[in-house]
Amino acid sequence: MEPGVIKTKSFDPSSYLVVPAKTFEDLRISDVFRAPSRTLTDAHASAFQTVSCDNHPVHYDVEWARRHGHTAPVVHGLQVLAFTAPGATLFPHYIGDVFISFSEVSCQFLKEVHSGDTLYSSLEITDLIPQGATGLVVTAATVHNQRGELVLSGQHKYLLRTQNV
């Protein structure tokens, strides 16, 4: 061995996991996967407006928003929904290689969100439905603001492989 070279075990990138991967059978109803809190800025809202092509003045015109009963421009609802994306949490790391698809999403927008609001989103498993070689994971998706108000409530469904192959 050359001087100054430290011998290490061989490194396998496929075993470099953020968290230990679980199978469908390892998941439990009431498991919660949280996303880091995020404070929305005008830059976030502007970037989403550009990507979504949603040019409704409620999202960018302060005076229009005020004339129509809003205290400020309203962040796009779909942008708030995006905060519930499974990849915003550790959920995809936990399910690892058993993931097949994100099969369904629904939500209700309960309160307005404005630039400057801090959002706290999470996914909580509410049902696990075995289907032979696959299993359906149902989660409640929620987003709260810094005042503790529930601003979005919804549901996601994910299809995973099971060990019953």
TrEMBL record:
It comes from the Bacteria. It holds the Pfam family MaoC_dehydratas. Residues 33-134 form the MaoC-like domain. InterPro entries: HotDog_dom_sf, MaoC-like_dom, MCH/BMMD. PANTHER family: BETA-METHYLMALYL-COA DEHYDRATASE, MONOAMINE OXIDASE-RELATED. This is MaoC family dehydratase. It comes from Spirosoma validum.
